[in-house]
Amino acid sequence: xxxxxxxxxxxxxxxxxxxxxxxxxxxxxxxxxxxxxxxxxxxxxxxxxxxxxxxxxxxxxxxxxxxxxxxxxxxxxxxxxxxxxxxxxxxxxxxxxxxxxxxxxxxxxxxxxxxxxxxxxxxxxxxxxxxxxxxxxxxxxxxxxxxxxxxxxxxxxxxxxxxxxxxxxxxxxxxxxxxxxxxxxxxxxxxxxxxxxxxxxxxxxxxxxxxxxxxxxxxxxxxxxxxxxxxxxxxxxxxxxxxxxxxxxxxxxxxxxxxxxxxxxxxxxxxxxxxxxxxxxxxxxxxxxxxxxxxxxxxxxxxxxxxxxxxxxxxxxxxxxxxx
Amino acid sequence: xxxxxxxxxxxxxxxxxxxxxxxxxxxxxxxxxxxxxxxxxxxxxxxxxxxxxxxxxxxxxxxxxxxxxxxxxxxxxxxxxxxxxxxxxxxxxxxxxxxxxxxxxxxxxxxxxxxxxxxxxxxxxxxxxxxxxxxxxxxxxxxxxxxxxxxxxxxxxxxxxxxxxxxxxxxxxxxxxxxxxxxxxxxxxxxxxxxxxxxxxxxxxxxxxxxxxxxxxxxxxxxxxxxxxxxxxxxxxxxxxxxxxxxxxxxxxxxxxxxxxxxxxx
Lengths: 324, 266
Prior knowledge:
The complex is a heterodimer. Chain A is mostly helical. Chain A has 15 helices and two strands. Chain A has helices at 2-11, 25-47, 53-60, 63-94, 99-114, 117-125, 127-130, 149-152, 155-181, 184-192, 197-227, 239-250, 253-282, 294-303, 311-314; strands at 133-137, 143-148. Chain A is flat, with a radius of gyration of 28 Å. Chain B is an alpha/beta fold. Chain B has a six-stranded mixed β-sheet, sandwiched between helices. A four-stranded antiparallel β-sheet of chain B has the order 2-1-4-5, with helices on one face. In chain B, strands 6-7 form a two-stranded antiparallel ribbon. Chain B is globular. In chain B, 48% of the residues are buried. Chains A and B meet through helix 10 and helix 11 of A and helix 2, strand 8, helix 3 and helix 5 of B.
């Protein structure tokens, strides 16, 4: 260390390299082509009268559109909640040494992943045709309580069941992959400390599996937001259905489809940002230092670039920190 | 050597900490342990050496029932490991009963196995809080004292990825000690470390030995075995080849296999 300091003191810092950077003419040509295509698209969007932007503006915050969007968001949140909770339970069952549990989980995943979600939705909607009423009581014995299926499962609940139970099957596989990605030494260490299988799963394995589970779960949530449009087939008035109802009256199909698309885009963008921060949270401990967030980066940009320290100053351990 | 006339009943508190009788273990058709007889006395530092694949790590993992033995008997502090005996019958212990016994046996792994999503201090207090139900404040105070003892009080808030290998292993030792074990198992604790970091870990282990902790140590550190060890066993091919006082065995091995092994590692 001393010799290094001395070397620096006598020679001083060598001159910073100033070289001519490599030119990229291909990139410039490409940018011109892309800019041209973008200009054509924009001019088409704003000059073609079929888009009817005034009508788009008029309906963007229309009462039934906003209400439909709220239904879509509610459905997305609840179905994902069902999916994640159900998925964790199914994944833990699937990895259980108990053949009854793992077999049950396997069959569940087989059925719900093996049939289209659209078909499942319609099935839940028609459940009343299979069982006119649902009851609680002794099997084949007396009933304590019963209720008509159509009352018990209104359209919203049917939609929720269809989306949530299907999602649980997909989440189960994502969670299982996450659990299996955690090093076996982790559960061994936890067991050696006297922690139970449940404690090990909850405190040690799942938090680490999260890092693997979160990114695909974000994708699933974004995908769920869009998949909710399928429930329009069972006449639940979410945003797509709300748009359809309006254009079936006024024949403004394209503007209303644009309204609906803009709302979907807005919320998928929000979800993408949320996913970024959640991933960051679960990266704790795996990266030595977390990269700055885009906001931190912006702030730094406007605050002016901090002068980078010379490498010799930031080599860890040189100051006796024992950080090797 | 091993006194086989002693029945497990008269073990109990004054008896040996670990007692193994004809322990066998196989994975499928591969026999890893082919009849291990040994006895670890209270307060003793017991070193297990031998070439890789000799079964020494497997035997260590049998002691806290991370591996199930196939034949023979194994006692820790006078109690059978993994089973309860009633008359001639053995009954497998429930998971919760196994966990209860593991509380008293600390284990340190070759690859540290610290929980990467927790800071050093969180690693240390995890089991006392979750398993023993200690209050967080108490556990934190004791945890800091333990980190102090392994020389890492200033790293309490660091995550394992921000620590060197030697520091991680010392946190792992503190984590095991937090459960106040009566027996510590070390599975090649310095094998994954850079040579310059080995000393710190061995110093902590030496300190433990001086305080009278019973320790079973699988190691390649012959210097440590000679200086700190009270007993030493050389294993090869799933059997105990030679055992005795570490200074005797290491300087004057009786068996050809021991001699061949030592000539390679010393």
